[in-house]
């Protein structure tokens, strides 16, 4: 901790550290700003005088920061192994193959691609090239409305649960309007007729943390804690969301707890570091983790204090390490998809 403080002090205003809500406490204590992935990328863009942006998050977040910051700024990821299993579930070659399948079914021309913020830069660029858009979990409804005003169908990736929950619970669609495209099956495991009939073509991807929560866990916590409020992220399975009291983004979860009545009881279905931090910060509330099984984000947890210290000390010594760069063409099209989201009227963008 002392080494981290010394290195941060030596870098001064040249350094800006971003910390995602899911980070360990030992890391997030050194963050200049905390937030979700999109808020942090925008915070990076709002610091044009910072030479080094150290992003304590995962790879796709650092890519977004590089896209939105000035060319001379350097975005650093303390551990290059900090990826995102959900983002890895939609590879560019797979998405391009899927687009060919949609073309063969005669529906590509009426389909708008929508990617979740939790995706790689080249996937965002694919959406940019095909008149598509990026969404976050809090503005997914507005983005889907925008997309369906421009096409008849949406190809939504990489998280099927966010797409399904938004379409059914917020857009008034039925489960029959949704089909799941499996990139590991021939033609996604779908017939041309199924693709033609669907409104939402959902990619078979999920969050390794939120996808673990079960509807049985909701029943169990309600039986164990009478009067408990169940608060979950929309990346959870549809059956879990249906049994919950409140559903919302990371920022929504935090604000809900901040505004909760003293003495109220909460079971929260999101990443464990955040749930533990909320419980510590709000001792007047009874806060528990929705599942009995520990559920950290394994890749996010790869950013630990030793990696952060190593990165900061190298920067202080004039050695740039673990810089994340997005090539100019990918950046151009990815920024176009991001800008379409930012241009939505009256929308706040948070994941």
What do these coordinates show?
With 351 residues, this protein is α/β, with parallel strands linked by helices. The protein has 3 domains: 2-83 and 300-320, NadA-like (Rossmann fold, 3-Layer(aba) Sandwich); 87-206 and 334-342, no CATH class; 210-289, Rossmann fold, CATH 3.40.50.10800. Helix content is 42%, strand content 16%. It is built from 16 helices and 14 strands. The strands form 3 sheets. Strands 2-1-3-4-14 form a 5-stranded mixed β-sheet, sandwiched between helices. Strands 6-5-7-9-8 form a 5-stranded parallel β-sheet, with helices on both faces. A 4-stranded parallel β-sheet has the order 11-10-12-13, with helices on both faces. Strand 8, helix 10 (192-197) and strand 9 (200-203) form a beta-alpha-beta unit. The radius of gyration is 20 Å and the shape is globular.
In short:
This protein has helices at residues 2-11, 25-28, 37-45, 59-68, 85-88, 92-104, 121-129, 140-148, 160-170, 192-197, 215-224, 238-242, 250-258, 272-281, 305-316, 328-342; strands at 15-20, 33-35, 52-56, 74-76, 111-116, 133-135, 153-157, 178-181, 200-203, 229-232, 246-247, 265-269, 286-289, 323-324. With 351 residues, the chain is α/β, with parallel strands linked by helices. Helix 7 (121-129) links the parallel strand 5 (111-116) and strand 6.
């Amino acid at each position: 901790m002392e080494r981290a403080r010394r290195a941060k002090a030596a870098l001064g205003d040249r350094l800006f550290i971003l910390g995602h809500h899911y980070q360990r406490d030992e890391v997030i204590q050194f963050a200049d700003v905390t937030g979700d992935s999109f808020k942090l990328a925008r915070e990076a863009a709002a610091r044009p005088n910072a030479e080094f942006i150290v992003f304590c998050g995962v790879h796709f977040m650092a890519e977004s920061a590089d896209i939105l910051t000035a060319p001379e700024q350097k975005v650093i990821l303390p551990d290059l192994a900090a990826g995102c299993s959900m983002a890895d579930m939609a590879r560019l070659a797979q998405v391009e193959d899927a687009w060919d399948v949609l073309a063969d079914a005669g529906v590509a021309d009426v389909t708008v691609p929508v990617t979740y913020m939790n995706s790689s830069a080249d996937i965002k660029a694919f959406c940019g090239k095909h008149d598509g858009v990026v969404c976050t979990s809090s503005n997914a409804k507005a983005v889907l409305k925008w997309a369906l005003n421009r096409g008849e169908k949406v190809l939504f990736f990489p998280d099927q649960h966010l797409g399904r929950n938004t379409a059914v619970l917020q857009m008034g669609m039925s489960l029959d309007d949704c089909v799941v495209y499996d990139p590991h099956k021939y033609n996604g495991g779908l017939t041309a007729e199924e693709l033609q009939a669907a409104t939402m073509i959902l990619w078979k991807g999920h969050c390794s943390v939120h996808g673990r929560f079960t509807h049985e866990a909701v029943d169990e916590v309600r039986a164990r804690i009478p009067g408990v409020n169940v608060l979950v992220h929309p990346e959870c399975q549809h059956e879990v969301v249906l049994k919950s009291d409140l559903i919302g983004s990371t920022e929504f979860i935090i604000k809900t707890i901040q505004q909760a009545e003293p003495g109220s009881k909460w079971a929260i279905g999101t990443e464990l570091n955040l749930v533990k931090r909320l419980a510590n910060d709000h001792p007047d509330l009874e806060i528990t983790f929705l599942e009995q099984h520990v559920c950290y984000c394994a890749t996010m947890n790869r950013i630990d204090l030793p990696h952060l210290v190593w990165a900061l000390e190298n920067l202080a010594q004039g050695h740039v390490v673990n810089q994340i760069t997005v090539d100019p063409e990918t950046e151009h099209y990815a920024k176009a998809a991001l800008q379409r989201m930012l241009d939505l009227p009256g929308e706040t963008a948070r994941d």
